[in-house]
Write a structure and sequence with these properties.
Helices cover about 30% and strands about 15% of the residues. The protein is of the alpha/beta class. The protein has a single domain (about 10-330), classed as Alpha-Beta Barrel (TIM Barrel). It has a twelve-stranded mixed sheet. It is globular, with a radius of gyration of 19 Å. The structure holds S-adenosylmethionine (SAM) and iron/sulfur cluster (2 copies). S-adenosylmethionine binds next to β3 and β5.
Length: about 325
């Protein structure tokens, strides 16, 4: 089995299919930076579906079992269901997931399901139109995301919801959001992270997961939460259920880092392989692909990168500073 320098296997591959997005979340692609003049990647730079499929096969040959499509906003990539279908045909792939802001799900959910997708993760930070409008940078109403969630459920997809929590921004409405969604979806609250270079992160803005959990039961009407076992080794969300069996997930990337179990590789839309969300450098696989590398050569290159991997940024946070990190919109979280 292929393992890195800290003994971690390669199990997951996150594939970013575009660097573009139809939102401008302040913690990810702030509008001041990603404005009208921002130079997004030209189409010719992006990996084609054939190239993505070829690389995905190489990763699967090396041990990857789970694929996740992300962005930017992956639903902006034309013909995405076709890519889902292609990836679903790779022998050895056990699970394909998609992370999306949900805005285009009413149009695409049924096609994605027909292409073989089983589940989606939809990001939604607040049900308060003002709070959400501010956070998404474009004043988009939360109902549009709720419509996307509904469309996904109608199409037969299972849904998880990701909520990034920022102190003083959306931390007042967490319980309300959880109550509104818990029948349809597992809500997972994510600690605000210092990804990229532009989101003005500071530790004071992080609401520790234990505080999030306390807020969910703050008014005393909910039964205590009890922890439940992870679904699989390396699951990033710590799971809890309330007395009625409703689940909530807490992703404590800052207060309880999970680098020790991190088996995720990330492929940017232009084919650069990153071995950590907070990396500054990656390995250009597209160059090899377009220079005619054989499957064996691609596998050897990827294996070499993984075997050399020693990333554990979240465990070292505070001890090290990193001048330049890859943008979240390039590797998709
Ligand atoms: N556009 C899609 C979406 O928003 O779901 C997929 C890409 S987005 C970069 C993937 C996930 O990363 C989203 O759930 C988003 O909320 C999360 N994310 C982005 N910036 C973050 C940050 N600074 N801290 C924590 N999570 C973040
Ligand atoms: Fe777009 Fe997703 Fe980033 Fe928000 S979190 S700006 S929806 S890529
Ligand atoms: Fe994995 Fe890097 Fe996150 Fe640690 S900081 S869990 S190594 S992506």
């Amino acid at each position: 089995m292929l393992v890195d320098r800290l003994g971690r296997p390669l199990r997951d591959l996150r594939i970013s299919v575009t660097d573009r997005c139809n939102l401008r979340c302040t913690y990810c692609m702030p509008a001041e930076v990603f404005g009208p003049d921002y130079a997004f990647l030209p189409r010719t730079e992006l990996l084609t579906f054939e190239e993505i499929e070829r690389l995905a096969r190489a990763f699967v040959d090396l041990g990857v079992r789970k694929l996740r499509l992300t962005g930017g906003e992956p639903l902006l990539r034309r013909d995405l269901p076709e890519l889902v279908a292609r990836l679903g045909r790779i022998a050895g792939v056990e699970d394909i997931a998609l992370t999306t802001n949900g805005l285009l799900l009413p149009r695409l959910a049924a096609d994605l399901q027909r292409a073989g997708l089983k589940r989606v993760t939809v990001s939604l930070d607040s049900l308060d139109p003002e709070v959400f409008g501010r956070m998404n940078g474009l004043n988009v109403h939360p109902q549009r995301v709720l419509d996307g969630i509904e469309a996904a459920l109608q199409a037969g997809l299972s849904v998880k919801v990701n909520t990034v929590v920022q102190r003083g921004v959306n931390d007042e409405g967490l319980r309300e959001l959880w109550l509104a969604l818990r029948e349809q979806a597992v809500v997972r609250f994510i600690e605000f992270m210092d990804v990229g270079n532009h989101n003005g992160w500071n530790l004071d803005a992080v609401v520790p997961s234990r505080e999030v959990l306390a807020r969910l039961i703050a008014d005393g009407t909910s039964a205590e939460f009890r922890p439940v076992n992870p679904n699989y080794r390396g699951e990033v969300a710590a799971r809890y259920v309330d007395g009625e069996g409703h689940e909530v997930g807490l992703i404590s990337s800052v207060t309880a880092p999970f680098c020790g179990d991190c088996s995720r590789a990330r492929l940017s839309a232009v084919g650069v392989l990153y071995t950590c969300l907070f990396a500054s450098e990656g390995t250009d696989l597209r160059a090899a692909l377009r220079a005619g590398a054989s499957d064996a050569a691609l596998r050897a290159q990827i294996a070499g990168v993984w075997q050399d991997r020693r990333d554990r940024y979240s465990e070292e946070r505070g001890e090290i500073t990193r001048a330049h990190k890859v943008e979240m919109s390039h590797i998709g979280g």
